[in-house]
Specification:
Blueprint: H1 12-20, E1 70-80, E2 83-92, E3 98-100, E4 106-109, E5 120-121, E6 133-135, E7 152-159, E8 175-179, E9 185-189, E10 197-204, E11 224-228, E12 238-246, E13 253-254, E14 261-267, E15 282-284, E16 292-293, E17 298-306, E18 314-323, E19 330-338
Parallel strand pairs: 5-10
Antiparallel strand pairs: 1-2, 2-7, 3-6, 4-8, 7-10, 8-9, 11-12, 12-17, 13-16, 14-15, 14-18, 18-19
Length: 340
Amino acid sequence: MMGRRPLLLAGLVLLAVAACGPFHPLSAASTPAGAIPWKALPADLTPMRVPSPQARPVPPGTPACTAGDIAGAAVGSQGATGHVIASFVFVGTGKIDCFVDGTPTLTVLDGAGKALPFALRAPFFPPEVTGPQLVSPGALPEPPTALKYGQASLGIDWVSQPEFCAGQAGVTIAEAVIGIAGGGSLTIALPASPQAYACQGLGVGSFESPPVYVEPPPQPPLPSIKVTLPTSPVAGKPFDYLVALTNNSKQPMNLAATCPNYEEELFADIIHGSPPLGGKHLYQLNCSPAGTLAPGRSATFQMVLNVPADAKPGTYTLLFALGINNTTNRSVETPVQLTA
């Protein structure tokens, strides 16, 4: 079911919704026996934390590279929002590994070998990882081959549209002279690229190598959902229904410690992407009374949804979804008959 449309419980739009209306504008009817009372609790839409990429470690005792230890080549350039981003790759030429580190000194030359007057600045796209990067002996990769551990890269960028530098003539960057901290420099020819305009400087990144992407921690498991409709929704009135949540995992589920958000919506035509009635409805469950669910145990929650007064009678889909922070992981769709 969830594949038919984008998940509703994600994105900046939802953050705006939460900021503008954190409390449910309703009053609940009497709570059914055995059910956890409904409460108007704001959703917690804090973005899930995504671990940053990590640099691969350089073995202790590895020496710093000199210009004589490595070879470099330009591996292409691309444009983005009025900038050109050019990339270089480096490999070892000797018999042992070495490392490069940080942002090198760098000068760009025109076709006559003359230094171009570009002030250096931070790159348009910052490097994913910083610190020492291993360079191992080997052949230079053919573009667009992805780099391997033991191959280092470096990116530079410049403004490529004249409107950013009114009255200034463009120049052609033909070569880059890249200083190597261990000693010496490499002069590397660039392929034909759009002209550069010096007023906004030259972005120079740091040496990089393929990072290690750390998997985010798994989200807490969510209970299964069963929706019960004691009554049918009526236009212009609060619609009371029940949701039973069951712990189908093999571990206790502490709802009080990790309380899910819920989304409840009425759709006239969910298959073809009709908007939910009355906008989005995002809240947090009243988890405190539920406490911890042992494996196989259930808790029933009273729910209340405000039905707009101008809703037309007919068959609708009630969506009830659960998620942690700004993600939705589980949902149930239930047909309902709305009356005037």
